[in-house]
């Protein structure tokens, strides 16, 4: 049998109508901690270096390549 309980101030509150006799030993399984979120760098680390045929001046002249603006020197 399993039930869902609420913990308030380190005290387990049983749902209404549930009775557990004094001295009964219970095993409580705590929920697993959620994994810590990864940083943006960690999430995209596998993509670093995937594309190797881009122009060397892409960062400087991105507007040129995307919008056709004049290239910067």
Describe this structure in words.
14% of the residues lie in helices and 8% in strands. It contains two helices and two strands. With 73 residues, the chain is low in regular secondary structure. 0% of the residues are buried. The longest helix is centred in the C-terminal third of the chain and has 6 residues, at 62-67.
What keywords describe this structure?
single chain; 73 residues; little secondary structure; 2 helices; rod-shaped
Please write out the topology.
Elements: E1 6-8, E2 11-13, H1 40-43, H2 62-67
Antiparallel strand pairs: 1-2
Mean pLDDT: 90
Tell me the overall shape: rod-shaped
Q: Secondary-structure element order, as H and E? A: EEHH
Spatial gap, N to C terminus: 74 Å
Describe the main β-sheet briefly. 2 strands, antiparallel
Helicity level: 10-25%
Structural class: little secondary structure
Strand content: 5-15%
**Uncertain spans:** none
**Rg from alpha-carbon coordinates:** 29 Å
Strand order of the largest sheet: 1-2
Q: What is the helix tally?
A: 2
How many strands?
Answer: 2
Describe what is shown at a glance.
This protein has helices spanning 40-43, 62-67; strands at 6-8, 11-13. The chain has 73 residues and is low in regular secondary structure. The N and C termini lie far apart (74 Å).
